[in-house]
Amino acid sequence: MKSYKARRIISALALSMVITACVQAEEGATAYGSVHREISTVSTETSTTSYETRESHSGKEARVFTGVGVGDVILPNMKSHRMPRGLTKTVRSFYGNYNAGILAKVKDGGKWGLVGTDGSVLIAPKYKELDSAGVPGMFWATEKKTPVLIDKNGNPLPAGTSAPAVHADGEDDLTPFKEKGKYGFKDSAGNVKIGPVYKEVLAPFSEGIAFVKNGDGKKVAVDTTGKELFAAPYDELFAYHDGLAEYRRNVHKLNWGGLVGIVLGNVVGGGGYYGIYDDYYGIYNGFTLSYDGVKRGYIDRSGTVVIDSKNDEVWPITAYGTFVKNKGKLGFMNRKGAYIIEPGNYDIAPGVWDDAGGLIAIKDKGKGKYAVFNLIDGMQMSPFAYDNITFHGSNRIVLTKNKRKLFVDEETGTIIAEYPEKSEIGLFGVEKYAWLVDEKGIYHIIDTEGTVLYSAQPGSLTAAMPFLNGVTVVKSKGVYGIMDSKGNWIVKPAYKEIKFL
Question: With contact defined as beta carbons under 8 Å apart, do 399 and 386 qualify?
Fold first, then answer.
């Protein structure tokens, strides 16, 4: 179909019929970088909306409401208050299979196979299970019962080939072992570094510190020589991340030593500085920003309590700090335990934040409106004036106000495009492309400038997932295929399931 410029808004033909689009998340998901989300049409209704036409700042015709429009700066503080480059790290790890010519695993007839980046079939679906072994081009494959290591063409790897251990937490070079009922630690070569003297391993080594229960039954922190550093009298402890360790009260213990015998092919749940592990992409893609009922706090490397678990609610920690609620008031503490957003009558929607840009949407419960805050110093970047705020990655934010959906450059605060309220904009993540479902339920691929690069035939697509490495998984006529940013099929729809590797 003929592609078209968004004209900074969807065609006038879309204004007579409204098709509500929603985003479905199969895993717990966060905003920026949230993956395994499909944009899919679910219901229809009719609507009429009144627009007027005027010239935009770019010289293109755009239908907008009176007041601000395309090209206007509506978040002026954004340009002058960007966070310093390199302050935070991206919490994502790709195994690099794409660079090895491997695009995705595909499922047909209940079995898994592999396709290459050119769309060719590398391994026809034949395995009950097929998972990355942590090295580009190396996979654990299960055909009957026992998993074996294979290459990208399905050839068994030579005897003695080993895959790296995958740890849910801690450091790879010191792992617990058990001997005669006691626990110690070995390095990656199997050398004993700390003899078996501990009753329990409460959290593995990370940043040079582990938590154990010593021979006297006391919970303590130890260094890599076994020297006891400080007492840690908490019900549950987790490994250090960037200088802080999470502790919990009155929750079930997890003995990491008991996990030694488990084949670590799957990520084991834990606490601490975590993102959501999304097995669709096989990456950590951000942090949960919703309170999960856990009574947690955080200690520094000296054992000093930085954020106290005695608060009513403490959210999981992020690179910037965490939300804390006490006596009904919600605020944001930095990683030193100081409030940078003072407690107020606030609320947050789960996942409504930008982990890379250090921005968060906070709701004033009294006004029922959202504002943007900076998590570096707590500065309020916008008034409490928006019905909804979503961060889409690649420095793009969508603000909804008075039935207007504004597509905004997060760095400058400038409106790039405007779309009807009932349209749905997908996530860019770290990519330059995203899906847009218009009011008729038609799927379009847009770039970060709001330009439409491809429009699908009406009804031809029913679901689409975020782009990765310039391609996207889409659903057509009940099966999945892979498409590039121009709408060309890399893998024609034929599979019951597709997962990027």
Answer: yes
The answer for residues whose C-beta is within 8 angstroms of residue 356's C-beta and 6 or more apart is: 32, 33, 88, 90, 393
Residues 6+ apart with CB under 8 A from 304: none
User: What 8-state DSSP symbol labels residue 271?
Assistant: -
Of 103, 16, 25, the residue nearest 51 (C-alpha): 16
Can you read off the two tokens belonging to residue 448? 């970060």
443-455: pLDDT as tens digits: 999 999 999 999 9
Average pLDDT value over all residues in the chain: 78
In one-letter notation, the amino acid at residue 450 is G
Task: Say if pTM beats, i.e. exceeds, 0.85.
Answer: no
Distance CA 165, CA 133 (A): 9
Other residues' Cβ atoms within 10 Å of the Cβ of residue 365: 12
- Measured between alpha carbons, how far is 427 from 35 in angstroms, rounded to an integer? 8
| Backbone CA torsion sign across 274, 275, 277, 283 | negative
183/196 Cα distance (integer angstroms) = 4
Per-residue pLDDT tens for 90-129? Answer: 434 444 788 899 999 999 999 999 999 999 999 999 999 9
- Give the residue carrying structure tokens 């959906």: 405
Helical (H) or strand (E) element with 79 = helix 77-80
